[in-house]
Write a structure and sequence with these properties.
There is one protein chain. This protein is mainly α. It has two helices and no strands.
Length: 69
Amino acid sequence: MEGDAQTAAALKANVVEPLRQLELELSRHVQGQLGRTNLRLRDEGTAPERYRKAVEEYYRRLSGGRPKQ
């Protein structure tokens, strides 16, 4: 399992993040040409801070885990 986690981290760092940056740059370029602002968030996968505890609890309940004390 440890090798899988390392492989996943390497793929994220070397493939996913550069592609995300490329997508963001291309989106900015197109939006600039259209005279619009880009309304997408850079990190769409992260919950806003005010919802973080609720999101953590949601996933904890899905996994059958116990709440932190």
